[in-house]
Known about the structure:
Elements: E1 8-13, H1 17-26, E2 34-38, E3 52-56, H2 58-62, H3 71-77, E4 82-85, H4 88-103, E5 110-113, E6 116-120, H5 122-128, H6 131-146, E7 151-156, H7 158-166, H8 176-180, H9 210-222, H10 228-232, H11 236-254, E8 271-281, H12 284-304, E9 307-308, E10 311-319, E11 326-334, H13 345-378, E12 381-385, E13 391-395, E14 415-424, E15 427-428, H14 443-458, E16 464-468, E17 478-482, E18 508-519, E19 540-543, E20 558-572, E21 580-589, E22 594-600, E23 603-610
Parallel strand pairs: 2-4
Antiparallel strand pairs: 1-6, 1-7, 2-3, 5-6, 8-14, 9-15, 10-11, 10-14, 12-13, 16-17, 18-19, 18-23, 19-20, 20-21, 21-22, 22-23
Helix pairs in contact: 1-4, 4-6, 5-6, 12-13, 13-14
Amino acid sequence: MSTADTTRTAVLWVPDWPVVAGLAVAGLGSHVPAAVLGGSSSSGAGAGTGQRLVAVSAVARAAGVRRGMRRRQAQERCPDLVLLPVDDGRDAREFEPVAVAAETVVAGLEIARPGLVLLPADGAARYHGSEEALAQALVEQVADRTGHECQVGVADGFLAAVLAARESHVVPPGGSRAYLAPRPVGELLHAAAVPSSGGGTARGTGGADVGAVAELADLWRRLGLHTLGDLAALPEASVHARFGDAGTWAQRLARGEDVRPPARRRIEGEITAAQELDPPATRVDVATFAARRLADDLHHQLGSRGLACGRLRITARAVDPVTGDARTLERLWRVDDGALGGLTAARITDRVRWQLEGWLTASAVARGRGARAAQRQANAPDRFQDREGGVRRTWKQSGAHLEDGAAPESEPALEIAHLALTAEEVAPAGVLQPRLWGPSAGEDLRARRALERVQGLLGGDAVLTLQVQGGRDPRDRVHLVPFGEEAPPARDPGRPWPGALPQPGPSLVLPEPVPAAVLDADGRPVVIDVRLALSGAPARVQVEATPGVAPASARDLACTVVDWAGPWPVAERWWSVAARRRVFLQVVADDGRGLLLSATAGAWSLEALYD
């Protein structure tokens, strides 16, 4: 195990924190037997019959109460048991003093969930003299400042540190894998998220939820993998192929490695510079002059605190001079590139100017289009019938001719009455990681500024980037989002997608499937029956010429098949009228390229290309 895969992590754990927080809010002492009751609930008779205990105090455990029990069973064993409701907000609020106390010892902590804190241990241990001294300092500081008892563990990797905290133990460097090896696979549950108030599971630092981990652990036990050492000894490729991302996540933890290290920076609050424009600005140059002062102010605030930001939010309150309606315009820009000296007041001003140009130009064009439409309506012919029964046309008199994109008369399309700049994703300056292959020459910055300029002129949706979303075939997994924005995908890629094509994905997905023909060695078309049996081994693939539809690399393609895999059936929405049934086939051509083919209703199509 390489040192690049792990980092020394300290974990501060407050046992039974939901119960501790609930007792503190209720004003009850720690001597009271208590438990947190969660799960499904409903109103009316029988409410709460499906609820179970999600956390139990030490006093209640001494009376025989265990987590996972039903309410009535727990009350039978301990009649004096106090039942507390699940309240994630309460747990988080009450835990903040504990985090503040821990942060007086180690700067830059990360809360995995209320009751569990991750801290980078390397530098802090050197400062305090040893990891044991660090753990003692954390325990004493939390007890002095909050009165809560906590346990601290230090180890390589997240899971080992969590289990070490439960035993108040310090695992020697490099010993996490041996420390974890004899433990049952069910111990992975401690690295997953805890159940939420709705009876389901919440996703947390562990990277997997309790239900998924419990199912995996049960499956591994039935397969003969009883310990974490058994799981760690399996080949990585086999684990990923059989159990997917969740299996890879579990194996990394079982080997004492980190899925990701704890955050080593303190999250700073947002910094804002705002100004009311009186009188409102009607021209870009006037608004830009005000934006320059705001940019200087924002840049000074960041520089005086030694901070940098990853995103810049530009907000303007605009007033329509005709109707008097006010609306808020807002755009988010990414500014986390460190080339050419990072973010400066001039670069902030450039972004604001581009955005103001885009807003004012777009509003002027919209006003002009509306005016031209009204003019065309005014110039529309009036039809009436003359005395002879014929039809005559007369045109209404029109006003002055309007230039394209101009608003009627000389009134501005929008007036900017308020302008604000907000620095988001604020962090200490200098934390940007440089390029792997030498310093940047500015080409990334120039390309980004060109794209941002296009966005400022044409709008945020004018430049799109690709994002991976959930789906079964490569085309369904493509999600287009505006450049620089962090829009959530329409479908969660982390959820299971039965029938999805195996990894790796293709390097080139065609905009639309291209008709193709798959032939066997005798030149006959290859067909697939209902049992997914091929009529013959694929020997040749021919793609029809479709200029403008497919890239040149996919036009007039005719190749010999040297290897193939599949077929994989994909049936989507089989219960509805809009059902889609396809069969996918992967082939390797004689020129080394891979092809992804699909068959629908007996017709083959080329979907994508592999390098």
